[in-house]
Structure formats: C-alpha cells, structure tokens
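Q: Convert this sequence to structure tokens.
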Amino acid sequence: MRIWLREELTTLRHHLINLVHVIVERARRDIDVLMPGYTHLQRAQVIRWSHWLLSYAWALQRDVQRLQELTSRVNILPLGCGALAGNPFNVDRDFLAKELNFTGVAGNSLDGTSGRDFVAEFLFWASMTNMHLSKMAEDLIIYSTKEFHFVQLADAYSTGSSLMPQKKNPDSLELIRGKSGRVFGHCAGFMMSMKGLPSTYNKDLQEDKEAMFDVYDTLMGVLQVTTGVLSTLTINKEAMRSALSPDMLATDLAYYLVRKGIPFRDAHGLSGGCVALAETKKCAVADLTVEDLKTVSPAFEPDVSSVWDYENSVEQYTSAGGTSRSSVLQQIKQLETWMTALD
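A:
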C-alpha cells in the first residue's frame, strides 16, 4: 500500500502543479479584466479577474506543500514488523528500506502493523484539496449563469438540457462539486472505523483500501476536469465591467477621507452618510455633487471625483497580495518561481 501510494502521490502532484500553471497563465493573460469582488454573495469591491484566479492558485500551492509533507510520512517501511512482535531472524530492516527506496522504518512493530495514519492523512489531504476545487467550481457555476454571464464553459465541459434546448448546463463543475462529498465521506468513514480499534491489526483495517483507491481515482478525475475547464472557458469582459457599480466604491470614499486626515472609524460613518444621502436623493452616490458631499463632511473637495474610477480603485491596493496590477504581477512571479524550484 505504501509503495503504491508513494508512487501515485507523485502523479497527483504533477496534475496539481499543472493546474496551478494553467491558473497562473490565465491570470497573466487576463490581467486587465476588472470584475466585482463579493462577500456574502453581494458586490463588495472592485478586483481583477486575475486576482480571483490567483486566490485559488495560492490555495492549491498549499495543497502541494501538504502533499510533499504527507509523502515523507507515507514513505516509512513496515516490513519486518511481523504479525505484531517483530522479526526473530535479525532481518536488516534498514537495508530493506534502502533497497525499496524508503526513507526509514517503522519504529515500533505494534504501530507498524496497525498504523494507518498515512491513509487517513491522505484522505484528509484529498478532502482539503477537493474542497478548494469545489469552492472554485461553485464560483464558476454562479459566474456562468445568465444572471451573471461572466464566463462561458466550452462545449466539451457542458451539456444541454434533455428538455429545454436553450440551456447550457455546467455539468463538469457540478460534478467537481458533487465529488467532494464522496471524498469527504471516505475520510470521515475511515476515521470512524479506526477510532474504536484496539491495538495492532484488526480486520476492520481492510476498509483502508476501498477508501484510498476510490479517493485517488476520484481526485485524479477532478483535477484533470478542472484543468480542462479553466484552460478552455471564455470570459465576458463586458459583463464583468458592466456589473461594477459606483456603490462598490463607498469604501474608497472612506479611504479618500482617511487621506484627508480623518480616522477611519469616523470616515466609515461619513461614507455611510453619503450613501444614505444618495438614497434620499434617489441617485447614485457618484452623482452627488461636491456641495452635496460637503453637507456630510467639509473635508470633501473637487478632487473627490477621482474616487469614481474603477481603475484607480484597484490600483490603490499595491501592498503584497493586493489586486493592483503590480501586486498581481508580483503574485504571478512568486508562483512561477515556486513552480520552477519544484522542477
């Protein structure tokens, strides 16, 4: 089991890194596309589409790191532990480990015969990775609806309705999301099988194989489908841009006041006052005149007009990890450097 899993983890690692590479390449290509960023599924602030893409690249990078750490614990040799007490023939276990490319031997024969931590850890790792992929799929399902129309899946990764010819269903993404429950179930089920076992080997442990093999097969498919979806989908730049609205710049209005010397705790309330004033006047907050804004705070000046520019909004987030062009390019560079070092 350990030899098989050790080899197959290398295959999963390859597919995972390839997916990160596809995301990074897309982020570089589409770096100038702006879109709404969401909290609570409500429009929040302006971000770059590339920034959204890279949020998942960073999550998957952590999954690669966890996989590398997991591999070192998988690669421990149990051979020579006997049924439970060890081997009475003075077998050189360290020699066996070297010959079979293991990095070490199980330190206790009782633990060596019954320890399935490596299986449970693999199932958890797969669950975490699939959770990230499921979240991405859910975002894309929402973005592909007619209500959003931000992205369109390639025909190879979507299907029509059996009844309604106008529909194009994101079946691939729904299956990615659905498969996560299958993987989570194997992880929880196997942990429950192990929790009440007495020490050393018990027949219950044969449940490890079904869970491990099925989760591997499932995740392999999910990784390849996700890579295919992201490399072939098209984006609707105009729909993303038209979804931006001036009310999303209310926080920028608060930032404007902070730059005028007003503490953010006060600026936040004043910005809310501007939004309330716009609602009272039944207009967009961007349509308020400087005179209108001055009734909320005398700190407003004619240069407040620069706030109502979406490009200016994203470009202010220049700190590491931000959504400005320079910050996104820096993220791309960091991820590319990381992938190069893996080679």
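The beta strands are 34-39, 42-48, 76-77, 104-105, 151-152, 159-160, 168-169, 234-235.
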